[in-house]
Amino acid sequence: MNHIQGGVCAPKGFKAGGVHCGVRKNKSKRDLAMIVSEVPASAAAVYTQNLVKGAPIYITQRNIADGVAQMAICNSGNANTCNANGEEIAWEMCKLAGAAAGISPENVIVASTGVIGQPLPIEPIANGVAPLFAALSDHGSTEAAEGIMTTDTRLKEVAVEFPAGGVTCRLGGIAKGSGMIHPNLATMLVFITCDAAISPEMLRKALSADVKDTFNMVSVDGDTSTNDMVCIMANGLAGNDIIDSDDEDYAAFCAALNVVTSTLCQMIAKDGEGASHLLTCQVCGAKTTKDAKLAAKSVVCSSLLKAAIFGADANWGRVLCALGYSGADIDVWKVDVTFRSAKGSILVCKDGASIEFSEELAKEILLQEDVEVLIDLNDGDATATAWGCDLTYDYVKINGDYRT
Amino acid sequence: MNHIQGGVCAPKGFKAGGVHCGVRKNKSKRDLAMIVSEVPASAAAVYTQNLVKGAPIYITQRNIADGVAQMAICNSGNANTCNANGEEIAWEMCKLAGAAAGISPENVIVASTGVIGQPLPIEPIANGVAPLFAALSDHGSTEAAEGIMTTDTRLKEVAVEFPAGGVTCRLGGIAKGSGMIHPNLATMLVFITCDAAISPEMLRKALSADVKDTFNMVSVDGDTSTNDMVCIMANGLAGNDIIDSDDEDYAAFCAALNVVTSTLCQMIAKDGEGASHLLTCQVCGAKTTKDAKLAAKSVVCSSLLKAAIFGADANWGRVLCALGYSGADIDVWKVDVTFRSAKGSILVCKDGASIEFSEELAKEILLQEDVEVLIDLNDGDATATAWGCDLTYDYVKINGDYRT
């Protein structure tokens, strides 16, 4: 499998773009993004589990219930959530986007990210849709990725090639996460495109399975947003025989999907609000995958460990503490903990107890940007990985600043 | 019910004290505390649910399995957790304390709080126990409360009088939480004394029921410590008829217990690491008590809301978001949210959507030290209260500073 350029425009038949339309006041910031497929595509999405859901979530759920979509539109700067007329506005966005592209509004995926509880005016979007559609190009992925960013400091796009049905297929994605200029919620939005032919059923199955190991294993601050969505459109223009059963082409598709999603996960965690470190926790030796996942997720979610990583403090006691309350079935007297980065690796806890180690080397390892916590539970064969970031002054600053 | 002075020494027949023995290097900081009853007392305790437990937890569990204890000893500066010889050291502390007081080591409650994964030397404690016992007094509650403090900035003691069985009984408590000079874990320790006569069974029942509404509803940072413990000793010296059934005296006892524990909860939350605000969330109108508790706890645990309270930002969207992922069964379109403090109260969300309000007044309200978030779910009669604090630069500083 090869990494390639082009993001969501890497797969055949997809164009994308992003413009400033005026939802945001800052004119130098794109706030409206669009992705369009030449032909109708199989589509699937997964959504936030939060009971409070952004209005666009409901419209998108309805629109792709039939497993088909042809375009996506997304604004940043306003989440269109907790608004009495929210669904009306989201549906209006679909109608405007569909009209510009000559596509039925039922085939539009719609999303919003930004402040919640403030009515979203439709005028800027109505004015922006036509010029945006006119400016779409097959190298517009980056503009679209910019259009969905909020306090993101890094662009998040990735694409890969993979073989299926005797031809080369491509799969690309863009993402935003996590923060906003006037922060309210760290919405995570991911748009994935693919030119493989795959049935809506298999696409849904692949995405649902994948997110359990990828996006559900990311945490920046433990707050589940109201607007999270991961969606995928696969338009079949690669010319492969359609993937409609659990065969080797499906496996190739899932592997490509996993490369794209896990790469985006790392990009999102690394760009967590205020983050200065990407924190990856790899658990092995667990009794079950469920135990491995509970353990890994608990470690990357611990405020105390996150603060220690900010301080490059090899405070393994906090790792043990987080394992202990994770809900995973573990034998604490079998746990080994290693810290690893580009500067090397160091065992800091053996059999659940302290061992001698060089604090100096540990500090050097933890001062690197990408830090891994490797945990061997020595109690089975199951493994899991979770991604997070450190807790910094800037997280507090970004989220504590006056909204008004 | 009257509030009275004296903390854990307010009930008849209890002496307490605290000294510096040398577990900590800073000689001006007491690091060893003791509480002794004149006579054996009914005893009960609840412990951390963390699978990684401090060694003293295991010893105390064993010692008060019979429902009887007569003294408590606690050091600060070292948690005696994740140490191969931890239980041996904790048991040695019981033997030393018991020998000094002429009490069986099986009747000693033992606790530790501090850095984990560092062997606890017994020498300072062996040297400190005799002078500490000699210095115990019936006005030594404050010294004992100081002896268990770590990064605590406020002393936490409280006592009340209540009538039971025709006589006046007293109940007092001290607590520590939450932080450490070389922080590892924000252990919460609570010692409660009472001079009422009550059977061990009823004492256990009362404490177990109470903590569900009090200590289990406090959160500073979501990290469940390895060493948390709440214990109570009731020595019967008030002279009341023993409370051994679910009668009105038991109800009076439970009411007194609840005043002491909920007061200590507020003290602990207000003194959370780095905290500048006490955050109280009161939920009413819930379908069930379970829903009310899930909702209240979720709100005080939200990193995003905690950062907003630090910034005095009336960001009610984060309250809705936390309600939405709380797991509580709520109708989001019925939710009202009010912020309240000494400066007044202000409705900021009605029926799950935005309403106009004065940002200026909201800010003034949120700038107060004690801030309440009042949530009416308008969907039933159940209520709950949870306590937390804001998320500040100082939390990151305290927990991100180099341990080494």
Shape of chain A: globular
Oligomeric state: homodimer
Protein chain pair with the most extensive contact, residues per chain:
A-B, 67 and 66 residues
Specify the biggest β-sheet of chain A: 9 strands, mixed
Mean pLDDT of chain A: 88
Residue runs with pLDDT of under 50 for 5 or more positions of chain A: 179-186
Number of helices of chain A: 11
Compute the number of strand runs of chain A: 15
Please state the CA-atom Rg of chain A, rounded to the nearest Å: 22 Å
SS-derived structural category of chain A:
alpha+beta
Note the beta-strand portion of chain A: 25-35%
What does the model show?
The structure is a homodimer of 404-residue chains. The first copy, chain A, is an alpha+beta fold and 404 residues long. In chain A, 32% of the residues lie in helices and 28% in strands. In chain A, strands 1, 2, 3, 4, 5, 6, 7, 8 and 9 form a 9-stranded mixed sheet that branches. In chain A, strand 11 and strand 12 (344-350) form a beta hairpin. In chain A, helix 2 (86-101) packs parallel to helix 3. The longest helix of chain A is centred in the middle third of the chain and has 23 residues, at 248-270. The first copy, chain A, is globular and about 65 Å long. The relative contact order of chain A is 0.14. The model of chain A is unreliable at 179-186 (pLDDT under 50). At the A-B interface, helix 8, helix 9, strand 13 and helix 11 of A face helix 8, helix 9, strand 13 and helix 11 of B.
